[in-house]
Design a protein that fits this description.
Blueprint lengths: L2 H11 L1 H7 L5 E11 L2 E7 L7 E5 L17 E7 L5 E2 L1 E5 L2 E5 L6 E7 L18 E3 L3 E4 L7 E2 L7 E6 L5 E4 L4 E4 L2 E6 L2 H5 L3 E4 L3 E6 L2 E8 L7 H18 L8 E10 L6 E6 L3 E8 L5 H12 L12 H4 L12 H18 L5 H15 L8 H6 L5 H4 L5 H16 L6 H11 L11 H8 L3 H9 L8 H7 L2 E4 L4 E4 L5 H11 L2
Parallel strand pairs: 1-12, 18-19, 19-21
Antiparallel strand pairs: 1-2, 2-8, 3-7, 3-11, 4-5, 4-8, 6-7, 9-10, 10-16, 12-15, 13-16, 14-15, 17-18, 20-21, 22-23
Helix pairs in contact: 1-2, 4-5, 7-8, 7-11, 11-15, 13-14
Length: 511
Amino acid sequence: MNSLVKVFLILILFPSVITAQSPKKNYEYNIDLIHISNNEVRVSFTPPKNSLKQGKFVIPKMIPGIYQAMNFGQYISDFSATDKNGKKIASERLDKNSWKVNDLKKVDKISYKVTNGWNSLQQSTDGPKSAGSLFIKDSVSVINYNSLVGYFEELKDTPYEINIKKNKDFYASSALDYKRKNDSTDIVWAKDYRQLVDSPVLYCVPDTTWLKIGTTEVLVSFYNKKERHYSKKIADDIENILKNQQAYLGGKLPVNKYAFLIYFESSNEKGSIGDGLEHSRSTVCLYRSKSMAFLPDALNRVASHEFFHIITPLHIHSGDIQHYNFLNPTMSKHLWLYEGMTEYATIHMPIKQKMISLVDFEKKLEEKIKGMKEFDNHLPFTEISKNAIERQDQYMNFYQKGPLLSLCLDIRLRELSGGKMGTQDLMQRLMQKYGEDKYFNDDDLFDEITKMTFPQIRSFFRDYIEGTKPVPLKEYLSKVGFDYDEMTGKVSTLANPDSKQIALRKAWINQ
């Protein structure tokens, strides 16, 4: 029989034979959550098809949202590479976070062990625990893929297939869609490494509640060793906030699915410990306390801020984020946007949606003003942002001064547009121009915003964000009928605002 005809018949009669033998173009990972020993998980993977003589395998030094070296490679041990016959292929560790693998084109499997990034929230670490992974056999796993999965620098932007062996009673809570392969194995796909790292997962016996916010499905997943039915209370508490955020964002949320992953560790000690990390479509929250009584308020604050990250940096971000270098990242100069504008939306939304009183709003502004004064406000925000790793002492000012700058920008936009346009509209326009898969050039953003708004806005950025002029709070709050006492830091409404101030305030906060 002609060999070509033979191959043709095999393809028709036994397509799986050819498929099984064909090298894949994606990373195929296997993670074993069943056979955990000494808080270590066994991980193995097959690299994508390639013709490389050698490759550099990387586990992140840093990840987006955390501005300090975490060195996730420190949790990796027993690294080895083998060919299809099980013969070892030479590899060597280059530093904390990378390995050189020879004859990569011959490599069939790479395996290693991963240990816990944290055992208890009580322990001190060099960085946020919410970015690390936790494995407790037959109990729970909090998985951040940046501490388990890596990539070859020569094989970037490649899809991932992750197979996870797990307890048959465990459920995967994540913004990604996990599929059941069989009773003890789940499978999930990610389009690239950035999406995988941006999508943590909580594995445990499920305590979950789903919310429908417009067309968006919101998953609330909760773990505590003793409490088994708490996710419903959390979901009920945050539902009103999420619905108001939906209205604030124009009536439609720009994601189909979002996940809140909440781990609570019971303690007999006084006080509470909390840690969290936002992602584009999910938020990880870790808490440790005697009582869960504080959780509703704490999670309301988290939901208010973190959920707004579906706007930026998910749909509005620079090339530094789109093509993030997990080993040696360069920082964007626009943390005023990513964190400052997000925090501003967090305090602006409740007053605009009539969830709080004017007095409560004034108190919130006073808190931000007081917080801003604890930092060096003679430094340009763009400079602090570009040097966020080195200037950790100033980083938290993006959550204090940042929203106050955004407040002034909002009032200025509404003043120039006769009340028709503010930062809400600006963010919508930026989303339409860029979106999830298109980034802006870091040096061009101020000019691009100026083009889509007003020429005067360029001087605002130049004076207050690129420059060091003090935040013009007194001047701008006066435009909307508020008085700001610079000596005491008090904010109050004017007794007799004129019609222009009243109209602009109405456009700004609907009051």
